[in-house]
Amino acid sequence: MNVGVGLPTTTPGADRTLVVEWAKRADTGPFSSLAVLDRVAYDSYDPFTALAAVAGVTDRVRLATMIAVGPLRPTALLAKEAASVHALSGGRLTLGLAIGARLEDYEAAGVDHSERGRRLSEQLAYVRGRVDEERIGPSRDGIELLVGGASGPAFARMARYADGYAHGGGPPRAFAGAAARAEAAWQDLGRPGRPRLWGQGYFALGQVEQGHAYLRDYYAFTGPFAERVVAANLTSARAVMDFVRGYEEAGCDELVLFPTVSDLSELDRLTEAVAG
Amino acid sequence: MRVTVVGGGPAGLYLAILLRKADPSVEVDVLERNAPDATFGWGVVFSEHTLGALRDADLESYLAITDTFARWDRVDIRHGGRVVTSRGHSFSAIARKRLLEILQERCLALGADLRFHREVDAVPEDADLVVGADGVNSLVRRTRERDFGTRVAPEGCKYVWFGTPLVFDAFTFIFRETEQGLFQVHAYPFDERTSTFIIECREDTWRHAGLDELDEDESLAFCERLFARDLEGQELLSNRSLWSSFPKVTNSAWHRGRVVLLGDAAHTAHFSIGSGTKLAMEDAIALRDALASRSWDLDAALVDYELARRPVVERTQEAASESAAFFTRVAAYAGYDPIQFAFNLLTRSGRITHARLTVRDPAFTRSLDAWFSGAGMGVAPPPVFAPFRIGGLELGNRIVARGGSEAASGAGLLLSGFVAVSATGRISPDTPTVDDWTPERRPVLLQLGHAGRRGACLPRTVGVDLPLQDGWDVVSASPLPYGPYSAVPRELDAAGLGAIREEFVAAARRAGELGVEILELDFAHGYLVGSFLSPLTNRRGDEYGRERLRYPLEILEAVRAIWDGPLSVCLSVTDWARGGLAADEGVAVARALASHGCDLVHTVAGQTVHHDRPQYRRGFLTDLADRVRAEARVPTLVGGHLTTLDDVNTVVGAGRADLCILDLPPSAVEAEATSPIAERQAVSR
Fold first, then answer.
1. What is the phi/psi pair of residue B134, to 5°?
2. Which domains are delineated in chain A?
3. What is the pTM of this model?
4. How many Cβ atoms from other residues are within 10 Å of residue A22's Cβ?
5. Mean pLDDT for each 10-residue chunk of chain B (685 residues)?
6. Which of A161, A222, A245, B48 is the most exposed place for a label (fewest CB within 10 A)?
7. Residue A252 region, left (φ>0) first, then alpha (ψ -120 to 50), else beta?
8. B602 interface with A at CB cutoff 8 Å
9. Please, which residues 24-83 of chain B have a Cβ atom closer than 8 Å to chain A?
10. What structural domains and CATH numbers belong to chain B?
11. Looking at chain B, which residue has its C-alpha nearest residue A119?
């Protein structure tokens, strides 16, 4: 299993200096990917802009959206942004797409929420089917495509159009359950081989309370669920290792750990924990 | 700290005991609307595992409870004039009334304040923590159902809960056929004088029998008459025993602020797996533990409580729903041999498998295995390794492998994968046609199909239903494109229908020349023939639209006429889409196929339309295969992500399918070798 790290694009106080330096260190660290989240109605950076900003200062790590809310963007623009990051990073993009969980992002973007599933399917068919690619370049060749979500249709969309599944987070046991469903969908749609399985978690290895506070704020829209996310925040090297081991045993291919505090020392501590 | 518990049932009382015991400075009030000795229901069942938890949580009440227990390890299944017994199931039961007395006494001894006859009409204001332990109709929950995300839906059969002075000596299932349909009983002893006696039947049976119009006494008399022989002359005891439907309660959150739900208020599990009281008391233990470990930091403790309990509860609820559904369709298994009927019943919820039952009761699975393989009473292989005979062909075992998979060596049958009847019937350019296909291994099942409107796509290594830029023209029942960017198919006219029918016939002849063992016609997944079966994809105004089965049956008959070997049809039994084929109609289609010469139904679901809502999990097609096999009375082949031999033994042994596609997980040796952690551990050793 590979381990990736999140880029601080949603945590308070993440500025240009931090984002760029974080990416450089991640690129030389034990991480295989650098991933971003996506929210419109929240003080955070746009996922594709952020990945473009770090594409130039990294050479090795894959750059991943984990996930981007596809339907918020017009399909051709989404494909163009993704393909541009892919080209400017030298072919390192992993594009994770899902419908997301927040109504307010759809309201802010002026997009019909009720059409989200159908729109995402269409976007996936467009990106993966390389529809209109000659007119709307650059090339989408080699973009690794992931789909997230927990419903039956989300798993079907994943198996139909993508290379793998982006899980939304939780204990290894929950991941294992989702992985079984992803594999069932993959077989059902007649795909050869197996889906790539991506998992994620949060960590705060220094300023724990600050990390918890950020998660409470970020997940406030979920009501009491926010406390569950806080409870799962990994706050020690030991917890990180247990989590990594648990995900590995559950069949995860790539586990991305997202920061909850905008501080380089968090990345250094994670590097130590992962390199163990 | 002041805790108000609303509801003086097992959950609330047990929590009061545990909280007072852990910290006598915590004030606990329990508000109960009824009198101390009023109770509904008769006995309560516990498993060995639960008892261990109760012993560790509070030894005094554990000793009092177990002192009055009825214990047994047998399950008796009475059906069709015979009894099948399974042992090794360690259950215990206690009168609910006695359980409440014990808990009440223990509460009083520990200084909890029990207030009876207290009807609560709002969430109490003056407590630091309010516990809604007030059961399935919880007022605490109903005051803020939006916050809790409450859903209540009926599940399973109509049922009525009686007692009887007849003391059964095992957990006893009784099945009784009537002109109105099947009635079944779940009976078990709970003290030395009394047993619980729950009767259920499907709602249509209940209405046909006129039970909807009988009052309490009349219905009791009806039930006494119906089960007179099993009651051995004893009476049924009523305790406001009325027929009802079981409400399945789920909540997306079990706590909000200082209010938390416990037991049935938070979640119910169908009585047929007997877990309600167990879950409720385990909830109390988990809540006590969470409050203690978080030093009464409520936000954190209530999250911990829910995190600890939710996975266990959800698994139990899923098993309970499976069990409830089983009893609604059990009449279809009436013709099964008693040992298979019993095995099917015991494995109904998914919690007991062939392997687990072998640990509990090796004699039972030995009998099943012997019956299944026809070995009489000797030693027999488990069901997966029993041969299967179909149309003069004998397969060595029940495992079916997809081509190129790890299971391929050793499987009784190999699937060819989709092979097109013609070049224009291909899914993608890499789809083999029958003219350029040869079997990898034998025996082989050749899956013949025409892709219809799902044709002319990119290879599935890239994705599915992604149209080629320069593909070929596609055809279907009606001119409706399949998915985004799909071409509009041409509606087949009479000549086109005839031509493709002849392609199937020619392909079948070719299969004969190749020595194929089993031939399968693909009528599923929204491919050409499948598109005729669903109202969502067949909008034709001609006779092929009025009778959606017409074209599929024409093809089946034409192939049957020239193919002597075993003939399978792959069928989407449900479209998993609104307005599409539902399972009832799918089963009827399977019945029609069987009566036109189909020997095996390869049961699948969905993909008829692009916007379907599939339900993926391990074994997601098993229930459908089971329905087809039991109701359409035709052998079934099923996949649906079965990953272990134990899965196959259970599915095949219970009669839910005859052949199973095995999806083996990746080899353990490989997984280990690519693991960076394993490498690191190897180095540090």
1. -105, 30
2. 2-6+15-202+236-256 (3.20.20.30)
3. 0.92
4. 25
5. 95 97 94 84 82 92 89 92 92 91 95 92 88 95 91 96 94 95 95 93 96 93 95 92 95 93 97 92 96 90 91 93 94 94 95 95 95 82 95 94 77 96 97 94 96 97 96 97 97 97 98 97 98 98 97 98 97 98 97 98 98 95 97 97 96 98 72 44 38
6. B48
7. beta
8. no
9. none
10. 2-327 (3.50.50.60), 387-669 (3.20.20.70)
11. B484
